[in-house]
Design brief:
With 244 residues, this protein is of the alpha/beta class. It has one domain: P-loop containing nucleotide triphosphate hydrolases (Rossmann fold, 3-Layer(aba) Sandwich). The chain has nine helices and ten strands. The protein has a six-stranded mixed beta sheet with strand order 6-7-8-3-9-10, with helices on both faces. A four-stranded antiparallel beta sheet has the order 2-1-4-5, with no helix packed on it. The protein is globular, with a radius of gyration of 18 Å.
Length: 244
């Protein structure tokens, strides 16, 4: 199985603090890789680096065969069409309705007609259980629905990879399960993914493999069974909420 994402010897410093010392991992085509670690470990920094929103001080980031760390903004556009970012808070435009939020990337980055845009939006809303909400503004949506709309907007460009930044944070069990089901449905369509989370039940529900980011490096990577069987117990302690 080939890799769609490869991070090699990634280093990142903020001021005097070296957050990422030597981070290396790969995401296989069609898999969902969970990225877990304590607060301040820099998980979201790595996620943002996969679409060029952050740049490492050293190391390489490969996306579908292209090394992106030295690309200019205009050169990053093809990469960002392949890789969707699902922000933790949904990152919806408050002044736009659900329909206009979903239409925005299609109008900006495709040559679809308004009829084609309308069809794609309504198909997406139906798939995500959001039909009837096209005229609603984000402030009038529940937190769970905002996240679902954010996910719908992220994938409306039909990307190859989806990056999830704490997609279940702050959600009740019902909405957490809905998000899990959506992620699994996208995975069934062959989408690759990186899933940053503290929510271990969700990680176990949707991820093929899990990587533990600790002390500036990937300390362990594998399936749940592989990680839990490793000697030393660090992954087990993290999963159980114990001090590392």
């Amino acid at each position: 199985m080939t890799n769609i994402i490869e991070v090699k010897h990634f280093q990142k410093r903020f001021g005097q603090k070296l957050v990422h010392k030597d981070v290396s991992f790969a995401v296989r085509r069609g898999e969902c890789l969970g990225l877990i670690g304590g607060s301040g470990a820099g998980k979201s920094v790595i996620l943002r680096s996969l679409i060029g929103l952050e740049r490492p001080d050293d190391g390489e980031v490969w996306v579908d065969g292209t090394e992106i760390t030295h690309l200019r903004e205009r050169e990053l556009l093809p990469v960002r069409k392949k890789v969707a970012y699902v922000f933790q808070n949904g990152a919806l435009f408050d002044s736009m309705s659900v329909y206009e939020n979903l239409a925005y990337p299609l109008r900006e980055h495709t040559r679809l007609s308004e009829d084609e845009i309308r069809k794609r939006i309504f198909d997406q809303l139906e798939e995500f259980g959001l039909q009837g909400n096209e005229g609603v503004f984000p402030a009038n949506l529940s937190g769970g629905m905002q996240k679902r709309v954010g996910l719908a907007r992220a994938i409306i460009m039909e990307p190859d990879v989806v990056l999830y930044d704490e997609p279940t944070a702050g959600l009740d069990p019902y909405n957490t399960k809905r998000i899990q089901e959506m992620i699994l449905a996208l995975k069934a369509k062959g989408k690759s993914a990186v899933f940053v989370t503290h929510d271990m039940p969700s990680a176990f529900a949707v991820c093929d493999r899990i990587a533990l980011l600790l002390e500036g490096r990937i300390q362990a990577i594998g399936t749940r069974e592989e990680l839990e069987s490793q000697p030393g117990g660090r992954i087990g302690r993290f999963i159980n909420g114990e001090e590392l």
